[in-house]
Amino acid sequence: MKKKVFLLYLLCAGLTSYAQEWTNKINDPDWHDRRSKGLQLGDKMPDLPLGKVYNNKTGKTRFSEFKGKLVILDFWTSWCEPCIAGFPKMEKLQKEFGDKIQIILVNTTENIEGVIKKYPELKLPDLPSIMKDDAGNIEILNSLLPNSLGHQIWIDKEGVIALRGSALNNTAKNISDFLNGKDIYILKDNSVVPRFDPNYPYSKLLGDFKSTSVKYSSIITTFNNEYQADGKARAENIIDKASGTIRNTYINYPILDLYENAFRAELLTGLKTEIIYYHNRQSSGLMPYLIIPKDTARYSDTFHRKISSGTEYVKNRFCYEQIVPRGISEKHWKVYMQQDLNRYFGFLYGTEAKMEKRIVPCYVLVRTSTKDKLESKAKNRSIVKYNKNGMSLVKYDLTGLGLLGDVIRDSHVLASYFIQNAKKGEAALLLNETGFMQSKSIDLILPESKDLKTIDDLRKALQPYDLDIQLAKREIQFILITDNSDKSI
């Protein structure tokens, strides 16, 4: 199946990643045929004659004679204005570092006579300059060090190529650090890297780059059949110290689950009570209450559990990954996730998800006394079924109040009751207002779920623990999802 990919990228440099040679994918014949050839970083500079050198006050005629110094080759031509503008800087650096370095200008296309004739007012710096000559020395040098204007070559004191790149590398600090054995950042230029190929997506090259990292990105793809298909997986708040980023990844998630994760922080911050049960989810706990469009199959198969084919299974499942700079709060990266999802699924279905507060009817679990009759005395978690006075009972030790959501869910009659209530706009969720968190360890004895036919049956079972379930109205935070399908339910 051909995958659709939705990308939002903001990128900048940083982390080192190791992969295959991305340059093989680039359509730049000039780079492949000429500029990428010749000596590379770490190669030894051959002992070549300098050839014709204008203003050669060094008295040296071969590259080997500069051993023990940092040699900087600065490529120029008379029509290169930035090259000429950089002459005073290069002259100043030579004076500052003296015998520790030797800056040599290199002009591969012109001889000195032609330059002086064409530009009689041009003032060349007090630096030696290798020029084109009849002997062909410059062609040999150019074949070993193919270049572009403004290109710089650094040759260390052992005669090894240590830098190929931009003239912006020529700073007093860089030279000082290099001479002292420190690493420096090398800014490349057009002579050592290929051009951007507009026919090849930048995103497909990212894993291949050796010195470029993603600082901010968001990616949405359709279901990824190259991962384990049955189920979903996620990784949140994965910190990459080297690149200074946080990564959040969700693999093969139903759209509804993606939205729940995107709004979770906001929902949990807004809740004054815990939700023990609501009609449209399989799991209990601190989960948001959702209003979604009529075409629920677009978003989740929770509502249509009988999946008949693979294509039906993957229809609402997508992958999402987000990378953001460290320091961005969870609240903010969740907002970015909401925006990403709305942008893509808005394009796909006209979907818009947002937070909304509504006053709705609901059931609330409350205490009827100040006495704590829930404190667990058990040492181990257990579930034991037994009969007493002709009733089938279940003893739950070291459980929590969230258990009541599972009990309602397992009672098909009660679960159906909540679903019907939701359709009629009546109470469709159970809130915990006891003051006890669901994580509190408690012991409970309840009838088997199949014997709980009504809310009153559950209320009666909770009376010994000074608990009751009451009908009330509460302001609840919703994820309100709308789209271009029929009206919401």
From TrEMBL:
GO cellular component, one term: cell envelope
Keywords: Cytochrome c-type biogenesis, Disulfide bond, Isomerase, Redox-active center, Signal
Location(s) in or outside the cell: Cell envelope
Domain Thioredoxin per the UniProt entry, residue ranges: 39-187
Signal sequence range: 1-19
InterPro entries cross-referenced by the UniProt entry: AhpC/TSA, Thioredoxin-like_sf, Thioredoxin_domain, Thioredoxin_ResA/DsbE_sf
Tagged with keyword Disulfide bond: yes
PROSITE patterns attached to this UniProt entry: THIOREDOXIN_2
Matches recorded under Pfam families: AhpC-TSA
GO biological process: cytochrome complex assembly
Any GO molecular function: oxidoreductase activity
Transmembrane segments: none
Predominant place of localization: other
Name the UniProt record assigns to this protein: Thiol-disulfide isomerase or thioredoxin
